[in-house]
Amino acid sequence: MKFRNEIEVFIKDYVKDLNEGTASIFAGAGLSIPAGFVNWSELMSEITQDLGLDINQEKDLVSIAQYHVNENLTRSKLNRKILEEFIEDAEETENHRIIARLPVSSVWTTNYDELIEKTFLKENKVVDVKYRNNQLLTTKPKRDLVIYKMHGDVNHPDQAILTKQEYEQYHQTHEPFINALSGELTTKTFLFIGFSFTDPNLDYVLSRLNFRFSKDKRQHYCFIKKHELGDSINPDQATLDYNNRRQSLTINDLKRYGIKSLLIDKYSDITDVLKEIENRYKKRTVFISGSAVTYLPHSKNDAIGFVHNLSKIIIENDYRIVNGFGWGIGSSVINGALESIHSNPNKYSESQLILKPFPQFETGSKNLKELWIDYREKMISQCGITFFVFGNKLVEGEIVEANGVISEFEIAHKNGCVCIPIGLTKSASETIFYIISKEPEKYYENPDLIMPILEELADEKTTFAQAIKTIKALLKTLKK
After folding, report:
1. Among 4, 85, 261, 412, who pairs with 251 as Cys (CB 3.0-4.6 Å)?
2. Domain locations along the chain
3. 416: pLDDT strictly greater than 70
4. 322 - beta bridge partners?
5. CA–CA distance from 118 to each of 18, 130, 312, 417 (Å)?
6. Do domains 5-37+88-280 and 284-479 have the same CATH topology?
7. Contact assessment for residue 240 and residue 234, using Cβ atoms and an 8 Å cutoff
8. CB neighbours (10 Å) of residue 238?
9. Looking at the DSSP assignment, which residues form a beta bridge with residue 190?
């Protein structure tokens, strides 16, 4: 998909931050509303009516909440509204699912609902949720990320930040959250999703940072939808012109805080951008599929040397490797990757080698075959490129084609991986090459670029040394 230049530049930079572990998400109400939750106007509608006011004429809804407490000397009705509106078991959106698959180390949100943390849990990630000051003092073991709910949690509505007084006192009552957010805004790149930038807490933090780091602010990003004539808030040209002018001023003001606005035509564009971010991140992760009882027609030393060097050049081109420790292949993958990593530990990291040995015993209600299918699906879904080498196994004393490698090819294609069979290694890899060559347009966006390379890698006259040189050039092309 082709994006406007400013969004294209953002995607490249944000993927780089994901690879470096310095990317974060800040989620506003706009992320949860498509899942069925209310916005602030809907939440405060009944409260406004009780006060004898018209919700359509009110902009300062924080003050409305304060007026309600002033009049009733209690916030019990506000607490009940939070429980009624945000406790429901809503279905997460596609944006939630994509965010949960991204390797962000933290998510900040002003939302009360539990949709974000539940979506991460579905991705089998260990989530450390913080919505009280004392929770910042502890660390959940083996956590994958931290979710900071700076305005509270639906299960504790009495502690949710709602009223004007609570906003005014936030810098005192929740100073640890202010300090934590200030630190993250200076060390990570934030993508703001579903935010209107009218939150006084966020404004307070951004203003303080702007004063402290006026010239050296970190670049952050936010999505802003362009106004459109005829939509709910732009019934005529005069209103559209006014709102466009106001939006332009807001965009310019956000620059003071180091926040660059990414203009989108429609909200579904956010999903397209997030999908592209995920795809490009995954393309830096390579799955090596293969197994070998025999390496014929090649010698064993030459064959394992090839796999060793293949793994080396993948690491040296700043990719990650995922490997299921295939028979006769896994050790060479590990050795090649570790050689590169240990030869230059300042440049390469052991985090670039992800080992996923297949389970060898049945657990739970699933038999071993079912476990392997699930395991393959999960392992390959994390990758964007798959190499296939050899692919044979021993069955009842006979060497046969490894159906597991063929299954991994089918899963990889289904998941949108760039499939690269090394056909000269024979067995399943050669079969995969023949399958692809019959309908290359089914497997690649640009088959004219990829097919000559696959044909060279399937040619028996191509040496392993030549194959490594060709693959190295291909890896550099795929990074662009």
Report:
1. 261
2. 5-37+88-280, 284-479
3. yes
4. 287, 354
5. 21, 14, 38, 27
6. yes
7. yes
8. 9
9. 24
Q: Which residues pair with 323 in a beta bridge?
A: 288, 355
**Architecture of the domain whose range is 5-37+88-280:** 3-Layer(aba) Sandwich (3.40)
Tokens read off for 110? 């002003």
pLDDT beyond 90 at 125: yes
pLDDT band at 212, cuts 50/70/90? Answer: low
Classify domain 284-479 by CATH number: 3.40.50.450
Give the separation between CA 292 and CA 139, rounded to whole angstroms: 44
Q: Does pLDDT of 372 surpass 60? A: yes
Q: Are 75 and 152 in contact (CB under 8 A)?
A: no
Torsions phi, psi of 78, nearest 5?
Answer: -60, -40
What is the bridge-based pairing of β-strands 106-109 and 23-27?
parallel
Which of 251, 265, 309 has its CA nearest to residue 465?
309
DSSP-H helix ranges across 317-426 = 330-343, 368-381, 403-414
Cut 0.90: pTM above it: no
Give the contacts of 255 (CB within 8 A, at least 6 positions apart).
none
Query: Under DSSP, is residue 359 helix (H, G, I), strand (E, B) or coil?
Result: coil
Query: What average pLDDT does range 297-305 have in this prediction?
Result: 95
Exactly one of 151, 220, 298, 413 is catalytic; name it.
Answer: 151
Asked if 220 contacts 187 with a C-beta cutoff of 8 angstroms, the reply is no
d(CA 473, CA 478): 9
SS3 at position 346: coil
Note if 151 is an active site residue: yes
- What is the pLDDT at residue 363? 62
What is the tally of helices (H) and strands (E) in the chain? 21, 14
Closest CA to 47 of 77, 20, 19: 77
Q: How far apart are CA 280 and CA 293, in angstroms?
A: 34
Residue 448, classed as helix, strand or coil, is helix
Q: Find out whether 284 and 322 touch, Cβ atoms under 8 Å.
A: no
Give pLDDT tens digits for 27-74.
Answer: 988 898 888 887 778 888 888 988 999 888 887 888 888 999 999 988
* Strand-by-strand arrangement of the 189-193 sheet: 127-130, 145-149, 106-109, 23-27, 189-193, 220-225, 259-264
